[in-house]
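ARCHIVE CARD
Drawer: 12
Card no.: 0347
Subject: one protein chain, sequence and derived structure
Cross-reference: see card 0346
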Amino acid sequence: MSYYDLSSLDVTVAALLILINGAISSALGLGLEKRLLIAAVRTVVQLLLLGYVLKWIFGASHWLAIVGMMLAMSAIAGVSAVRRTERRYPGVWLTSMTAVMASSWIVLGVALTGVISPAVWSSNPAQYAIPLMGMILGNTLNGISLGLDRLTQELTAHRPEVEMRLCLGANRWEAARPFIANSIRTGMVPIINSMMVVGLVSLPGMMTGQILAGAEPMAAVRYQIVIMFLIAAGAALGTTMAVLLGYRRLFNRSHQFLSGTIRKVKT
């Protein structure tokens, strides 16, 4: 098996498939043509820029460049998670950033010390650290976004119930615990669903990419199993941390629900 390097013509032919989306939008009057065009252009530009940056980082193989790239990726993920929420509160950006940074870097640290031996990646750390971080972050930010959105939605919708519990003597944890559990569950559902059907309904991107690059199928499968567990751990840690930090922001030490700090925004 050998690796086939796609030419610019190959990419152009694939890009033309986006016209199918435009045709459907035009035929059904969906009004998505402009958004599709912008999304397509952004996809090409962003990935080309990423390719040039990664080429430079892989060539330099300097720790400062690698860490700087991963910090930038983590920061963007933290911001993106909040931008997807409909309700926000003071400190939500710090909550998201902290949860993203802590969970993704912890899981990555485990991957690069306990799963993949440092002897394997020490000669070219960027080749392993950056792709692993990207896959962990993608699922972690989804979990955090869903968890925070569900938390503010649940607490807003059940404000009378929360305040009644507090009036009857419950502390802030007892009053908010059911909604915290629902929020964490919501954030973890997507990755659990993906794990349930992986290999049956869908072939994951990393596994497919390795096979296309010429890797032996069972070797690609082992890598994909590791990746699935890493991203599941990242999503669980990130969602739990974000929801708990959000809960602490929305209740003060006097066990009062600060419902007035939650505001709905346009996403």
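Annotation on reverse: The first helix runs from residue 8 to 15. The two ends are 46 Å apart (CA to CA).
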